[in-house]
């Protein structure tokens, strides 16, 4: 079994990727500092796989500690780097923490990987790098625009750092940058899923918590945008579909099939849905009536963005499989397993 280091492997997307990696015949090794994830995730992963996944409680930005993981785990074939802070609003409040953590952990990883001859990297990027795009859907060739938050800027900077490092003369690093659209839902088993700390920032956990009676009502952030029903458009991708994109990307790197030292792929469904589409689809999929109100716009929101998913399909053979309704049903099933 080829060994793949998964930083942030106890997080939302990371935990689903760990499961898919193992089921695809890889040996995942988790590195996580549990700053925004819970130990219970490990039990969920173990319950799905029937085996425990080796896990190191290490902060990726701690170079000595990260080196210790590479020493303890010889023959790592590649790294999937998920570990990062991810809340747009929080990044405006604590920009320095975002740069230190998101940029810092990448720099540390890029310094340590070559010491151990590890050359393959899959990096978690985001459609936030496109800013407010001029045309939709966005392709990988769509020019990036100023990001609307420090969070988005960390993703842009990390992409640039990877390009620069890869361009150095004796560099051996090969990277696939995956630009995620909006991950939602949970594993079919409902043993792992999203675990927001406190009041959720993201739409779908807010919806499921409202349906579960934890929140009184959902506030839709604006209905006066230039979209069919006035609410924002996003591309919502099931988290297991998104996780599977990482397995294809890892395989491509290990097979030496990448055309360039850095390749970039959008990972979305190619469909744009409004916030009201999501609310109505959730109501149908769950049989729950959702209490919601229309509120003011949320600062920093991009009016509309969704992926052109053609490149991932043509080059990686990757296509999403789960509908919006099924994704939302899985989110609801997961919510019902959580204590209030
Ligand atoms: N949204 C909303 N109410 C909420 C949370 C989110 O109306 O309580 C909207 C938000 O304005 C955006 C969409 O849902 O249009 C997705 O937001 P989310 O924070 O989940 O992801 P983002 O696209 O901002 O990364």
Automatic annotation (TrEMBL):
Q: Name one Pfam family in it.
A: GDP_Man_Dehyd
User: Which keywords describe this protein according to UniProt?
Assistant: Carbohydrate metabolism, Isomerase, NAD
The record's subunit annotation is: Homodimer.
E.C. code: 5.1.3.2
Give the matching InterPro entries. NAD(P)-bd_dom, NAD(P)-bd_dom_sf, UDP_G4E
Is Lipoprotein found in the keyword set? Answer: no
Pathway assigned in UniProt: Carbohydrate metabolism; galactose metabolism
Entry similarity comment: Belongs to the NAD(P)-dependent epimerase/dehydratase family.
| Reaction(s) this enzyme catalyzes, per UniProt | UDP-alpha-D-glucose = UDP-alpha-D-galactose
Entry-linked CDD domains = UDP_G4E_1_SDR_e
- Give the GO terms filed under biological process for this record: galactose metabolic process
Q: What class of enzyme is it?
A: isomerase
What would you give as a GO molecular function for this chain, any one? Answer: UDP-glucose 4-epimerase activity
Q: Which residues form the NAD(P)-binding domain?
A: 5-326
Has the keyword NAD been applied to this entry? yes
Q: What is this protein called?
A: UDP-glucose 4-epimerase
Which GO CC annotations does the UniProt entry carry? cytosol
């Amino acid at each position: 079994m080829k060994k793949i280091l998964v930083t942030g492997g106890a997080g939302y997307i990371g935990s689903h990727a760990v499961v898919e990696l193992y089921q695809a015949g890889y040996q995942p090794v988790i590195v996580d500092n549990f700053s925004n994830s819970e130990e219970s995730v490990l039990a969920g992963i173990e319950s799905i796989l029937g085996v425990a996944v080796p896990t190191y409680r290490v902060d990726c930005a701690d170079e000595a500690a990260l080196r210790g993981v590479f020493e303890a785990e010889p023959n790592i074939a590649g790294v999937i780097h998920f570990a990062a802070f991810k809340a747009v609003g929080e990044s405006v409040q604590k920009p320095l923490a975002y740069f230190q953590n998101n940029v810092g952990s990448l720099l540390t990883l890029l310094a340590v990987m070559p010491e151990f001859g590890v050359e393959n990297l899959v990096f978690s990027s985001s459609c936030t790098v496109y800013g407010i795009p001029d045309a939709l859907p966005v392709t990988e060739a769509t020019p990036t625009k100023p990001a609307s938050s420090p969070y988005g800027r960390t993703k842009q900077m990390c992409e640039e750092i990877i390009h620069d490092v890869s361009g150095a003369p004796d560099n051996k690093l090969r990277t696939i940058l995956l630009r995620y659209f909006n991950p939602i839902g949970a594993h079919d088993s409902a043993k792992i899923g999203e675990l927001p700390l406190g009041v959720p920032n993201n739409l779908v956990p807010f919806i499921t918590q409202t349906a579960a009676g934890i929140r009184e009502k959902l506030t839709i952030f604006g209905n006066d945008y230039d979209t069919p029903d006035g609410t924002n458009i996003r591309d919502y991708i099931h988290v297991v579909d998104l996780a599977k994109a990482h397995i294809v990307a890892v395989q491509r790197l290990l097979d030496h099939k990448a055309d360039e030292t850095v390749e970039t792929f959008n990972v979305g469904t190619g469909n744009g849905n409004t916030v009201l589409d999501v609310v109505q689809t959730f109501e149908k999929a769950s049989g729950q009536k959702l209490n919601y109100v229309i509120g003011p716009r949320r600062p920093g929101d991009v009016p509309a963005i969704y992926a052109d998913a053609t490149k991932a399909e043509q080059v990686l053979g990757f296509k999403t499989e789960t509908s919006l309704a099924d994704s939302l049903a899985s989110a609801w099933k997961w919510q019902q397993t959580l204590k209030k």
